[in-house]
Amino acid sequence: MGGNYINRELSWIEFNRRVLEEAQDTTNPLLERMMFLSIVSTNLDEFMNIRVAKVLDIIKSGYEKKDFSGFTPSHLLKRIFKRTLLMTTEQYKTYRELTRALSKEGITLCSYEDLNHTQKTKIDEYYHTFVSPILTPMAIDQSHPFPLVHSQQLYLSIVLQREGDAPEDEPYFAMVQVPSNLSRVIPIPSRAKSKKLAFMLLDDLIKQHIHSLFRGYTLVAVNSFRLTRNADLSLDEEGAEDLLEEIEKELRQRRWGAPVRLEVEKGMHPYALELLKEEFEIHDHVVTIDGPIDLSFCSKLAAEVKGHPDMRFPRTEPVYPAEFAANSDFFAVLQNKDVLLYHPYESFQAVIDFICQAAYDPKVLAIKMTLYRVSGTSKLVTALLHAAESGKQVTVALELKARFDEERNIAWARALEKAGCHVVYGLVGLKTHAKITLVVRQERDCLKRYVHMSTGNYNENTARVYTDIGLMTSHPQIGSDASALFNEITGYSSSRDWEALSVAPTHLKDSLFAMIRKEAEQARAGKPARIIAKINSLSSQEMVDELYLASQAGVKIDLIVRGVCCLRPGVPGLSDNIRVISIIDRFLEHSRIFYFENGKPSQYWISSADWMTRNLTRRIELMCPIFDDRLRETLKRILQLHLHDNVKARQLMPNGTYTRMKEVSEEFRSQFEALTVESWKVNDAAAEGVVPVLS
């Protein structure tokens, strides 16, 4: 086991293994298992081009000190490569099992040789009409330098001999990029009177016709490969006169990032393999793939299969929040009570409708909003554009540095500025990760503030598959803090004594530590003490140490951590009173909820921040208290749902591994239970008095 901490990168690998287990879980519908397999692949890609790339950069700098988990960068890199290689082997074993299972259901991924004459004619026609015109064969020799190979794009390496050359002559080498703007999954016309579904991969189709691109040459070998480059942006924000232009420049540089991983098809021609390794200067992390490179296409394959409801999770429709279904005037409702939203069980459409009502309401004078990850066709942004064009003061704190969404956010920034919005890009050196909207409205003889604060992004697409909590309120203290926050982001206002909110990087960490220490003081005095935190990641050493001290004082601590967790629970004398579970299921658990027993009354908070160093010290984050007893009871029930899960919850063991719950007589699956809104939402009549302590 070794040490008091679990390494962050190795913990992440364990997280992705749990996702892979969902692809292997035979109780999940078949097409959903394909979706999980796709997620494993895309997760691993991002891990390689950000986290592993960072470790490589550290090694190149000559830094060899141990991190707080006890690993030197070189030792860690070896462990990462070993574990990810095992995971890749397991991925492809699972892929073969799933494709065999699909084949038994009449859904096959074909090779060209599997097709009959009619099918070959049709697929050949597709190739010559839609594929061949956009292919570019790239020869590599003295007059043709090695072209730019884009990160995580699929290529074919082609080894050739000129007609008449002797076998011992050095071969010729060329490349073809598999077009990324065409679907990789191609439906094949069914055989006559057959109900079976057949598909073919675009790269297999190109391989079949590759000889037509090199007439006069003999094809020796054609193999797939894929390169992963360092995709982390390195910005000089202090020296940048225009942050938007600086990010655009760095995005162009990203395509030249240092190679991190080379994936090659099993049986790749040795001449091609050596040439690629030499060109990319990569020798240690070359992964041989026994199957199609890049399994992210599995989600596309699952989406192409029409019908077959038995192979998918049961269809669900989010419920429109009852508070607004009864009265569509958001401002009238929020004048009388706060409203808590739980997505995706409740519809994100309510948030869109709130912003739209604000945009069109003549009494609304100003709308201020933070945007981190935005969908490509955002109704929210469209509403902001209308509000600005109609004369309202619209301010948008748009985070240009939201990783892999930079280009989309730049496009939205230009559109918002063109419409007359005030667009700011946050504070130098800090990402704006807080999710908050402030609406200022003229009401009788005063201005009233309305606030929406969320644990998740203002993104209609992810709101369908991410679990998040949102609060709508007209609470004066929250409204006052919201105004102060936007003044800090947009102007020169210094940080203040917050009335309700806790804000990172200046205040939030200290607030959390103070509440943890208060629980420890109560426990030492022999009084009940309890902490529950639902987060995505826990990797801050300071936070882990505070939790260890609280555990040693006797505080009972339950952590619901979806992903990375550097804390070792259940270690005698260190973390006896700490339990950690992780839930991986149909929806991505994304909400952050904190409960501290000792307050007046017990404290419930929602937050945009995970318990990671970057969230607590290098980002603008929010933590918001829940004042309404009815909503606090709702949060209590939501936490209880997760703590009682015995189907999709895995418990973290002291050695860093995760185990499923022991077999029980009655299964309890938190996400399936939450589909029944009545299981967690509390109505007005049910919230008399103080919220009871969680059991």
Task: Describe, in plain words, how this protein is organized in 3D.
The relative contact order is 0.09. The longest helix has 32 residues, at 73-104. Helix 13 links the parallel strand 12 and strand 13. The strands form 4 sheets. Strands 14, 18, 19, 20, 21, 23, 24, 25, 26 and 27 form a 10-stranded mixed sheet that branches. Strands 10, 11, 12, 13, 15, 16, 17 and 22 form an 8-stranded mixed sheet that branches. A 6-stranded mixed sheet has the order 2-4-3-7-8-9, sandwiched between helices. Helix 11 runs parallel beside helix 12 (379-389). With 695 residues, the protein is of the alpha/beta class. The radius of gyration is 27 Å and the shape is globular. The chain has 3 domains: 8-311, polyphosphate kinase like (2-Layer Sandwich), CATH 3.30.1840.10; 322-490, 2-Layer Sandwich (Endonuclease, Chain A); 502-686, Endonuclease, Chain A, CATH 3.30.870.10.
